[in-house]
Amino acid sequence: MELSESVQRGLQSLGDQAVLDRSSFPVVVDACFRSLLSSRGDPAVLDLPELKHVDKILLKQIHAAATTFILEAVKHNADKSTISSSLEELTFNTERVEIFYSTFQVCRKEKACFIGRGPAHIKDVSWRLQYQMKNGQLDKVNEPFYLISLSTENGGASEDVDFSCTAEQLQDLVGKLKDAAKSVEKASQM
């Protein structure tokens, strides 16, 4: 796995015992996995009493690096030797590699690494044609536009996505959706 310099620096800080002591390290690792597994980002994921002594900016850099590493490991279906060698190159000691990998395995066994951040599923679509006569500056506009509402569901939570578009933009969207449907149909026939 190739990692950027900023990710490597963040992981080196995660592995540094002077930055995170024995009790803080597993808390940070657990917080990184929890933030990836939650369907909505929790801004307070790092606001834990065990981490009050760690510089907030450094903690955010560590979190960003660790989550990037986790996602890359999942993406490449990394095994224990790959993860271990990558972390050991970044000055992780054996104990920290084991803690990190055991947490990674729990995530992988539950297949939770593949759930949570997926795209929402569209359940329903509604639309309405509107006509704009004037704008806020009292200029005549006289243009039709469409109000589109998509009812979506992600992880059991329902949410509406509303947007407006002109007739040309709607035609472009419909064309792209048709292209996507053809691609999916073609891929399923292979």
Automatic annotation (TrEMBL):
InterPro entries noted in UniProt: COMM, COMMD3
Domain COMM residues, every copy: 121-188
Signal peptide: none
GO annotation terms (biological process): sodium ion transport
CDD domains (alphabetical): Commd3
Top-level taxon of origin: Eukaryota
Family according to the record: Belongs to the COMM domain-containing protein 3 family.
Name this polypeptide is given: COMM domain-containing protein 3
